[in-house]
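We now fix the convention by which a protein and its fold are recorded. The integers have meaning only within a learned vocabulary of local backbone shapes. A complete example follows; check for yourself that the lines match position by position.
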Amino acid sequence: EVSTSMHVKWGSLFLSVSGAYKIGPTLSTWSANNAAPYTRRAISIAIGIGITNMGGILATWLLGTLSPAPHYRNATITLIVFSI
């Protein structure tokens, strides 16, 4: 059942967006701190940015095919699971 409360909708949007955007800086920081020379550090950050950008492709694909519009229930659940 989809909630009709605007507070619940805005709360879930806040959690989804914060979960989606927290991985980029975390991954960049972690890979920069764990790569030894500067060349390996630059390559690991670039690969991390590429991987996080692939999440946008996955989200577009999931929202278009996995769930019917306008609620996108299964796609939203899947994206939240990937965010955790």
Observations:
- DSSP finds four helices and no strands in the chain.
- Residues 38-65 form the longest helix (28 residues).
- The mean pLDDT is 81.
